[in-house]
Amino acid sequence: MNNKSIGEVLELFISVKGDSRRISKTVVELDQEGIVGDKFYAKDRERSVLLTTIESYSMALANKIHMTYGSLGENILIDYNPYALPIGTKIQIGEVIVEIAKNCTICNHLSSIDKSLPKLLKDDRGIFVKVVEAGFIEKGDKLYLL
Fold this sequence. Notes:
This protein is mainly beta. It has three helices and eleven strands, in the order E-E-E-E-E-H-E-E-E-H-H-E-E-E. It has a single domain, classed as M1 Pyruvate Kinase, Domain 3 (Beta Barrel), CATH 2.40.33.20.
């Protein structure tokens, strides 16, 4: 492994059934089915964990769209932009290893925040990752490209 960190985890979120709010966590457990306790756990391995960069929020703010972290539906918010990395790239986050599975498509709920948001973040909302090696991720954990 390259010992130089590329970034770190800023925030962690889960969604639970029957609650539209994102729940902020200090630590989450991941296994091959996604984030334990999240409403998307064991639904679709290639879409169960959403990784978003702080740059997505910066882009929105630069266009006068104010959002709280978690508004983009992410599970893991990081301070590194992974959007240009190819599908199949592996990233270590804390003790967990994930693999980029696919780009996140824009959801209709983003237009409820601001009508221009879906178009603005068309290719910059986030990426879905699948879990290769299970474990725990905590706020502040470092990221490493593998």
